[in-house]
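Researcher: Good morning. I'm working through a list of sequences from a screen, and I'd like to move beyond sequence-only analysis. For each chain I'm collecting a predicted structure so we can compare shapes side by side. This is the next one on the list. No need for commentary yet; just the structure.
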Amino acid sequence: MNAPAGERRIGRSVLAVVAGFVAVAVLSLGTDQVFHTLGVYPPWGEPMHDPGLNALALGYRMVFTVFGGWLTARLAPYQPMTHVWVLAAIGFCSAGAGYFATRGLGLGPEWMPLLLWLSAVPCTWFGGWLHRRG
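Model: Good morning. Structure tokens for this chain:
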């Protein structure tokens, strides 16, 4: 049986947002793993205090977040920027939870998770904007 058009659109909407979120998470953690394996980053579980390494991680996470916004807009069945805003809200809440969960634990500089949190919305929006523009 075929699902009604409305149900297919809702499913595609959910898929678009989930795909953007999963892409950012997989790319970020995958890149982290590569740097841990190459010895650029300290082993998992050890704090990373070097500001340069944290800036590197922040930089590629921001690029991946832009990509996640672009991917969500690309896959959205209608109103791409609405889907991007949903992803941005999810990213903002997730990054905020990460910031508050790690505050004061000495895992690295406090600015890293704070900037991840604060950059979630503008980077996701920028990805959607790039899709709309292109």
